[in-house]
Amino acid sequence: MAEQFLSTAALVDALADADFDRPPALVSNAHVTGLGVARALAAHDVPVIALDRAGGGADVDGGTVSGTNLDAGDGATAVRHDGLAPPSDAVDFAGAVTYPLDDLDGFRADVEAIVDAAGTEAVAFGCMDEWALAYAEAEPEGVRLPFSGIDTLDDVLNKSALYATCEALGVPYPETYRLAETADAATGAENADATVDEAADALGFPLVVKPELKRDFEEAFGTNVIEVADREEFADTVAAAKEAGIAVMAQKRVDIATGRDHSLASYVPPSGVDDALAVVGNAAIRYPQQFGTSCLVETADEPAIEARALAVLEDAGYHGISEAEFVYDADREEFLLLDVNTRPWKWIGLPVAAGANLPMAAYAAVTDAEYESPGVEPARWVSLRDYLALLAGDDAVWDQLSPADWRRLVSGAFEREGDLTAAVYRPSDPAPAAKLFETEFVDRDYYCSC
Q1: What domains are defined for the chain?
Q2: What is the pTM of this model?
Q3: Is residue 74 pLDDT above 70, yes or no?
């Protein structure tokens, strides 16, 4: 267990005294998703080094805490970090690295120093887009990537390329127009489909504005999608994107059927999709309900979703862990592909509980370790913090867990029975849940839910 979140220098010193009998996993971020990945790997005795930025480690939204140095004793230095992974028994070491969006060269240097101190190569798991892309783009020496390189990642994450692939393969996706006003910043100016006025006339309002590539857009606007209510707001948003040099597109606001969001959770090995390990998950309940974070997800039998997602991944030549997100369009009465996330995500624990340990499959593919799925069985995953907040709120939501489920959760029996798992709470590994209570009930915001 990593008792403290260390500064980079202190982490390097600690690793210099450690011995590893197999390559450790570098898991970034060090919050809920990183915790899920760490637990999946630790179940197979893979050593885990959790890496994040200091100061709360908030990868998406606010509420971070300043990175004040704390005296850790014996010459070591701890830094403030509110992520939930470091106190887990699944994490052997944890510490800060330069945030790659601030300084990619600094990030590379930090990771290389950590790997050099460990005395062995390491396997990288980026659990948010910026971390996965940073490992791929920086290519730190001594780090093995269990996923495709930066060119393939960019192709999959590029909305223009993704939707063009969907069009060619006959995979339904939301009605989308690439905008002429930002065509100069696009991957190809010929890709523009319409002007702002033409898109507004075709789609009506409200509509959503999305970037071709998320990274710069999120940096400029603090989100990866903006809903606009009228023509003036639409024009202003596109003008701001143009000024920032970011290509954007207009997309029809889908009349999403609440509770019918599905995703393919998969690991595709370098040998291709025929050997993929895959599970379809249904985000049955979100918090807030329509567009919020997943808080209750269950396995689902949707072979068409699996086939469509794997076809897109095959066309892109992608290998690695990914989540292909589909929503159900009530008007069109079909599932639409919204996005493909080329990394682990918040409910990565669901496929693990169902019998498809995607992180371990990825680790085994680039090391001498072995992993074979015992077979996939039905399972459910719950984020108790978000689920309880939803049940206690004003929205009319029926509890989807039975009295027997609650008894299993409170007693800890759910850990032994396998068909129900929780995002953070685990009696056999209590420190992350205890830390969540600390951030929940003191004067600091709970940050990034993934």
Answers
A1: 8-147 (3.40.50), 175-252 (3.30.1490.20), 261-342+347-382+384-422 (3.30.470.20)
A2: 0.92
A3: no
